[in-house]
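Journal club prep — side note

Before the paper discussion, L.F. wants everyone to see what a predicted structure for a comparable chain looks like in token form. Sequence:
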Amino acid sequence: ILEKMNITASFELYPWQRCLKYLKHGYADVLISMLNTPGREQYTCYPDEHISISKTMFFTKSENLITFNGSYEELKGYTIGVIMGFSYGDAFDQAEYLIKDGAIDAMMLITKLLKGRNYLAAENMAVVKATALQMGVEDKIRFFGPPIHTQKLYVGFSKANGLEKICRDFSISLRKFKKSEQYIPILKKYGIRPSEMMDKTN
């Protein structure tokens, strides 16, 4: 999409909390795949068009029998892997009675889970699917229960760097790209069904 806008980009990977800090202070121009929250709106310009739908779910080892009916109370006593700095929704974020163990990315979440460090973990299902596929362990984990939340994810642009116009232009380009023939093969490459990226509210 940036190439079509005649913009050259370099991509760097950092822990999530550092990504937010870099965007806020203008050390980074863009942060990919973030929720639109009131606190982040102070320093982030969001496109109108979302890049994906985040279906955040619990997952565990394939052989584990744990279930989840939507009440966090039933998860007391389990160590739950989470991404440090991520928001999992107010109810989960404020559930201080839960034992949460931080990881820097999905690969670490999966690794800790398979090694028995955590009994379950929580993350964007599409991200976990793609990472597990890359690691060759997709058959060793399973998702369970209703989603923790299902929300739109965006590409955020730094207000500190005055990127509001580029943000608006990106939104237009993204909307066009999602209707192109290039979009579906990318989703399939990472094991994502096109229906999982559709906005069910429209």
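L.F.'s comment for the group: The mean pLDDT is 92. Keep this in mind when we get to the figures.
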